[in-house]
């Protein structure tokens, strides 16, 4: 039952973190909510002077092992630290395992600054990737008896005598993942283990004025396989010119260098931080992709220079207030005036009045 709840909890956390571009599958000793537990399985080949991986609590939970100063006639140490079986989302391409460790250099260890017969300055990460869920942890394959069940994926020990973070990238090969850290002579500590994968986030592109919206896409294993995804115009937007293809990169970022088109806010809305919001009162936007501006005022000094039953010719001075800001097209002004002309001609024909009040309507 215990395992069942762990499984459920893992899938829930998975859902909770999808908005970020890195999904956390496992984080030891502490998860994102600050809850700290770390109780993994230990398998140690017994022998004189051998202690194997040891869980340390106190200020911070960690695992250490330091079986050095062994006599050459003693067997070589072999100690395993096994994770719980982790559930891997079926669409995951690459899994990143980030470990924080410290290895003490053999040349500082007894006897005679050698660490003894078996001392080494590295340890190993093995994995078992399978589609088989094992409910009872006691039934996890025992690496001491069945080494073939685990695949060696990394020798860890880039730096010694200093706390180091190292990320091992593996391709996903199954629904479940078991990590197995193997020590065969090093004196080292393991401070943290984090298992993650990258996702290009769904929703509108962030830090981009294009307003293009994308479907959440699991990142490819590497950039030579970057995934081409077609964006769409989000809520309250309209597509203008060009295709909306972008690429999902292995680091969970959208590469928009191929993006040709864009989306603009519908009429009477403007782009505020990537979302279209209604124009404030008294302002208006004619779907030109810019911000809301002040309404055009009435044209001044309108003269009807020619009138018959089917036509009216009007001349005017430009409005006192123009909608135009820099770069703005003439469309909004012309469109407004055309409407005004229509209204006036209708009123003219209906009433034949000389004094006309007119109304401005958006077009
Ligand atoms: C992954 O799982 C989901 C539901 O759990 C399923 O709809 C989808 O087809 C699966 N995808 C693959 C590639 O197996
Ligand atoms: C350490 O070095 C000393 C002198 O060099 C030697 O006598 C001794 O046997 C060495 N001890 C071990 C355990 O190698
Ligand atoms: C991983 O462990 C399972 C048992 O849970 C075993 O059946 C499988 O063969 C192992 N994978 C490999 C690659 O040996
Ligand atoms: C990226 O993927 C391609 C195709 O699968 C492969 O040939 C290449 O070796 C990979 N590159 C790296 C750095 O993993
Ligand atoms: C984005 O993709 C283009 C090719 O489409 C590539 O040349 C460029 O290096 C990529 N940008 C980044 C930051 O990877
Ligand atoms: C639109 O308004 C926002 C703030 O409301 C501003 O940051 C942005 O620069 C404006 N864009 C243009 C094209 O004026
Ligand atoms: C009104 O004037 C226009 C332009 O001069 C002309 O084409 C049209 O035939 C005239 N309509 C009438 C009913 O006279
Ligand atoms: C319209 O006519 C009035 C007087 O008839 C004149 O003062 C004004 O300049 C004319 N306006 C235009 C734009 O021609």
Straight-line distance between termini: 65 Å
Mean pLDDT: 82
The main β sheet shows up as: 7 strands, antiparallel
Uncertain regions spanning at least 5 consecutive residues: 1-19, 318-331, 353-363
Q: Over all CA atoms, what is the radius of gyration?
A: 34 Å
Total beta strands: 27
Q: Percent range for helical residues?
A: under 10%
Q: What percent of residues are in strands?
A: 35-45%
| Large-scale geometry | rod-shaped
Helix-and-strand structural type: mainly beta
| SSE string | HEEEEEEEEEEEEEEEEEEEEEEEEEEEH
List of distinct ligands in this structure: 2-acetamido-2-deoxy-beta-D-glucopyranose
Number of helices: 2
Pfam families: Ephrin_lbd
GO molecular function: ATP binding
Signal peptide: 1-20
InterPro entries: Ephrin_rcpt_lig-bd_dom (IPR001090), Ephrin_rcpt_TKs (IPR050449), FN3_dom (IPR003961), FN3_sf (IPR036116), Galactose-bd-like_sf (IPR008979), Growth_fac_rcpt_cys_sf (IPR009030)
């Amino acid at each position: 039952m215990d395992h069942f709840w762990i499984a459920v909890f893992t899938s829930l956390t998975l859902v909770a973190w999808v908005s970020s571009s890195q999904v956390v599958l496992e984080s030891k000793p502490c998860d994102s909510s600050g809850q700290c537990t770390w109780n993994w399985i230990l398998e140690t080949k017994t022998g004189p002077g051998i202690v194997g991986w040891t869980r340390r609590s106190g200020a911070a939970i960690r695992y250490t092992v330091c079986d050095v100063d062994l006599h050459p006639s003693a067997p070589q140490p072999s100690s395993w630290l096994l994770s719980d079986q982790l559930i891997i989302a079926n669409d995951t391409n690459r899994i990143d395992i980030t470990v924080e460790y410290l290895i003490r250099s053999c040349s500082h260890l007894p006897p005679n600054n050698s660490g003894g017969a078996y001392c080494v300055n590295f340890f190993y990460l093995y994995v078992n990737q399978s589609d088989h869920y094992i409910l009872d942890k006691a039934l996890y394959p025992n690496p001491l008896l069945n080494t073939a069940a685990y695949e060696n994926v990394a020798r860890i020990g880039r730096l010694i005598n200093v706390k180091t973070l190292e990320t091992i990238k593996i391709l996903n090969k199954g629904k479940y993942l078991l990590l197995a850290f193997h020590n065969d002579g090093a004196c080292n500590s393991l401070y943290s283990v984090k298992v993650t994968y990258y996702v290009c986030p769904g929703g509108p592109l962030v830090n981009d004025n294009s307003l293009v919206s994308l479907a959440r896409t699991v990142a490819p294993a590497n950039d030579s396989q970057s995934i081409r995804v077609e964006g769409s115009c989000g809520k309250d937007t309209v597509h203008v010119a060009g295709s909306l293809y972008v690429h999902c990169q292995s680091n969970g970022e959208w590469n928009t260098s191929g993006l040709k088109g864009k989306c603009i806010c519908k009429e009477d809305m403007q782009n505020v931080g990537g979302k279209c919001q209604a124009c404030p009162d008294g302002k208006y936007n004619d779907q030109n992709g810019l911000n809301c501006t002040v309404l055009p005022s009435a044209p001044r000094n309108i003269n009807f220079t020619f009138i018959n039953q089917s036509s009216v010719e009007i001349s005017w001075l430009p409005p006192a207030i123009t909608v135009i800001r820099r770069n703005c097209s003439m469309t909004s002004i012309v469109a407004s005036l055309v409407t005004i002309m229509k209204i006036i001609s209708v009123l003219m024909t209906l009433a034949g009045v000389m004094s006309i009040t007119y109304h401005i309507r958006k077009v």
